[in-house]
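Why does residue order matter? Because the sequence determines the fold. Keep that principle in mind as you read this record.
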Amino acid sequence: MLENIRVNEDLLNQEKYKYIFSVEVLNELVLKGVPFRDAYKQVGLEIEAGNFSFQGEPKHTHLGSLGNLGTDQIKLQFEEVFARFEVQKASRAISALQKGVLG
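Structure:
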């Protein structure tokens, strides 16, 4: 199943996702020293007036964010859990059952 997953790289360019990065702009303003309340109001007014836009790449750094999905950690955890499944033992048992039924 995972081999057939295809990522739609242009998904966020659709109009319905126009405001998805409003928090990114808000955070940029706060990091520049604008008080949160004022930055929130500014971004809200830009959205309300239809003047909001976001250029650039998100600067998220927390695990699970767009820029830091943590797929390496997910793969490692998957491999650790999968290793606990005794796949070879189950395969031998299935083979033995099939031989008993078919043999």
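The chain has four helices and no strands.
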